[in-house]
Amino acid sequence: MNTESTVPRRTAVGVPRESAAGERRVALVPKVVEKLRSRGVEVVVEAGAGLGALIPDELFTKAGATVGDPWACDVVVTVTPPTREQIGRLRPGATVIGFLAPLTSPETVAALREAGVQGFAMEAVPRISRAQSMDALSSQANVAGYKAVLLAAERSTRFFPMLTTAAGTVKPATALVLGVGVAGLQALATAKRLGARTTGYDVRPEVADQVRSLGAQWLDLGIEAVGEGGYARELTADERAEQQKRLEDAITGFDVVITTANVPGRTAPTLVTAAAVEGMRAGSVVVDMAGESGGNCELTEPGEVVVKHDVTIAAPLNLPATMPEHASELYARNVSALLELMLDESGALAPDWDDEVLAKSCVTRGEK
Hints:
Layout: E1 12-15, H1 30-38, E2 42-45, H2 57-62, E3 66-67, E4 75-77, H3 84-87, E5 95-98, H4 106-114, E6 118-121, H5 136-155, E7 163-165, E8 168-170, E9 174-178, H6 182-193, E10 197-201, H7 208-213, E11 217-218, H8 237-251, E12 256-259, H9 274-279, E13 285-288, E14 305-308, E15 311-314, H10 324-342, H11 356-361, E16 362-365
Parallel strand pairs: 1-2, 1-4, 2-3, 4-5, 5-6, 9-10, 9-12, 10-11, 12-13, 13-15
Antiparallel strand pairs: 6-16, 7-8, 14-15
């Protein structure tokens, strides 16, 4: 009796080595590989895929993965969007899960569609309670918010905490975080742990209580911009002008300013003007976390650290990649949670298109 047709074929998941410059994260880690294996999923890891995150191939194979060609698998999980050449290595009907940048890199989505590949964008996962375990934007923003404060402390010419010494008392640094989503809240919490006197600002007034719960003060400028899906809406021209005027006055009183404001698919709003930087005390620091979308500071040079008016302005790109171990671990859990939502009891890929999470995160259905 031939039983091959009655035994469902295991879904094979491929993990490629990231090719984007400076990217050290990997889409799956050994602990998550073990979990997927228990669901009947095969995992194929490209040689050296985890080296940037200090995970050798041996740890993947010990977890049950095999080393081989990930692009030949049913599902390929990535961190950064695959290149057109990589998409060309996928078979028609395959599935890609990762940060696919559907708003800022439409050519990637077009290439996936042309190849007949099904694409799920991690940044498109709806921010609803049921999908929290899949929210990669939040997990990576936590990493970025933490690291931004460490960069600010490194560049600062002043102590963060108050120090009482035989030579006298040193006042704590004052830190302002502009934009208090996940990254901003983590930045506030980290700066507070380091001893700074913290203040948060956002155009969404409902986050004021979250800021205060972290022991920070709330900077109220009287401008509100409540949007959909947990994001702030884009301000009108008049609102932006008034916001900048009020912020300029406030910013000059802080030693450290960390900006996190982004509007998905749009150029980052200007929050820290050149005039505001000029008014800051010499030795102050601005860490602009929105550099990849143009920056929140008017004097930002994305990817660079510059000094203007004796103020250091840092605009690091891809902060999560600078902490690849924990960033990969968190991201792998997000990817795994989304992937498992697509699997049936046998471990076969069977996405339910009536599921809100899958429907909204899917950017191509595999049809040419």
